[in-house]
Give the backbone structure.
Amino acid sequence: MVCPVVPVGDPGNVGTLLRAADAFGAGIALSEGCADPTGPKAVRASMGSLFRVPLGGFEEPAGKRIALVPAGGVPLPELGLEGEVVLVLGAEREGLPAEVLERCEERASIPQPGAGESLNVAMAGAIAVYELARRTH
């Protein structure tokens, strides 16, 4: 399982995503424009995961691309997970650009009963990676 990340500007969120990927056996593919995963804030947030998680470029991962969107996608617990899964996460405010969404085979959302706003990208990524790992291992 790989999580491509489309420009996440906050290095703390990049580090937290690395930490979640490390915990659940995923890799990370960063798009152009992402915060530097080797910057001090990202390294601190990753708690050393930066040195254990496979890092790649956004175009590299092969598999079924699933866009994680705040609303309107297949509820994450109901998502079909056959074959290699590539979970695509977007920037904190803008989400995924239309051209990236078009290249994804499916869209998934994390059910949030009673929530007024979407989750932070690092929180959403951690939940999604946990759910995928839980169901595939």
